Amino acid sequence: GSVTNLFTSIVGNVFGFKALRALRLEDLRIPPAYSKTFIGPPHGIQVERDKLNKYGRPLLGCTIKPKLGLSAKNYGRAVYECLRGGLDFTKDDENVNSQPFMRWRDRFLFVAEALFKSQAETGEIKGHYLNATAGTCEEMLKRAVFARELGAPIVMHDYLTGGFTANTSLAFYCRDNGLLLHIHRAMHAVIDRQRNHGMHFRVLAKALRMSGGDHVHAGTVVGKLEGEREVTLGFVDLLRDDYIEKD
CA nearest 189: which of 219, 164, 231? Predict the structure, then answer.
């Protein structure tokens, strides 16, 4: 299956028709026979808990702030302090990539050092979501390979800005090489925020479920970002479903 081809067929041209002032795709019904042609999550919830050896409670983590401006060494220090202080994981933010003040390879190295040091001191398995998003699929996979060589348990991808084809390629790599894949939904509000035009996030959630990711930002009912409680919990249920009900 190809999420790229699916969206090209369904929404590729119709949104540009002159006769339409606005158009919104609220949902997709995916036939079970078609859904079986997609990779889906590289591993899933149970495998992640097995890798971390943590059960029966939510996993607690945070995003390193300030998101931009820290050197790789100071970034690694912040990761260590968070993990040593009791968090299960830390993560890169969506635009932590490879900038002059912190190149991606340096960040990966200092974060790996922080991971192993905190694990040795706490006796727990820790994680940090290393952002592998890049300008090309080849560069993205190179970063994922380097993360795996360092012994990192998980990488991250911005699946909308990175593109469905790139995301599916990364999901295949993660499945074949034992890496967990966290997904950030950067740019989703450009597509789903307006209620009379664009696409509902449940469509983007289904696309991600087919393209591949072990977990994704699905919104929150508290905090700074927009999101209604019932709708957000609906995304969570959708992403956790084990099967598609037949019509």
Answer: 219
